[in-house]
Every structure is written in structure tokens, then in C-alpha cells.
Design a protein that fits this description.
Elements (H helix, E strand, L loop, with lengths): L3 H24 L6 E10 L3 E5 L4 E6 L5 E7 L2 E6 L3 E9 L5 E9 L2 H11 L4 E7 L2 E8 L2 H14 L2 E8 L4
Parallel strand pairs: 1-7, 9-10
Antiparallel strand pairs: 2-5, 3-6, 4-5, 6-7, 8-9
Amino acid sequence: MPNSGRGKTMRGHFSRWLMAIIFVGGFCGVTLSQTDTEQITLIVGRSTIVRAPWSTARVAVTDPTVADVQVLTPDQVLVQGIKVGSTDLILWSEDEQQTWQRRVLVRLDIETIRTDLGLLFPTADLRISDSGDVLVVQGLLREAQHAEQLHRYLESTKVAYVDLTTVAGIQ
């Protein structure tokens, strides 16, 4: 094992250099942005106000086709869901030395659709979910005419959908 001592020495040098870089970086005003694991979840077409941890100088979203962002006050930002997908919201402090970042997830409004379908078909056994930007409807309809009504409703939502329902009785 002639190289075992050398590996420890190389690791020791690397550790010292890394610590020196971190130490010097602290004196040069370098700050690392922190990405929190929290995310902001929005429904397409809806918005929320995000309170900034400090007065912001600049804001951005990484994919403006998914969400829009607008500064309301120095410490309040409006985030609006535009289409299904995900993006990042980034806020910069006034001195631009700190950043705050959150993942923004924009989803379909499946709760409203679930409620509507429950009212339209109270005797049906329907399960509503989403897969990306596609609505998935599964379950059992009690009458054949309900299948036509379901399709009319789904078409009116202008949301891409997959209908996996069946009609009770002999087919």
C-alpha cells in the first residue's frame, strides 16, 4: 500500500483549499443563493401573493409561459398560473447580494371539475385525476346518455382529457 499515505495527503490539501475558498468568499461579499424545498402550487388561471423575505430589486420566473410574476410592493409579489407546468420564482434583494427561490407548480383545477361532475352525475362512481396537462376521468356511469353528457362537459372545459369511463349494463 505505497499510495495510501499520498491519498490522505491529497485529501488534506483539497480540504484546506476548499476551506480557504469558502473563507475568502465570505470576505468578498459572495453569497450563495438558498433554494428551499418548499414549492408554490397554483391552479391554472389563479394567482397568489408571495411575501418576500426582504425588499426586492428584481423578480423573475424561469418559464414565463407557465407563470407570470408582478411586483406589487417592495415586499409583495403576485404570481399567476398561466398553463400547466413548473417553473422557478426568483427574487433578488435590493443590493442583489441575496436571492430567494421557490419552485412554482401550476396544475389543472381538478377539484372544480370533480365537484361539477358530482353534481351532474350524482349516481356515477367517477374518479378524477390529472397527468400533467391531461385530465383523466375513470369510473362507472349509470346510463348511456351520461357518456354523451360527460363528453359535452369535458369539451366545454377546453382541457385535454382521457375518458376511461364505462357504462353500467350490457354493452
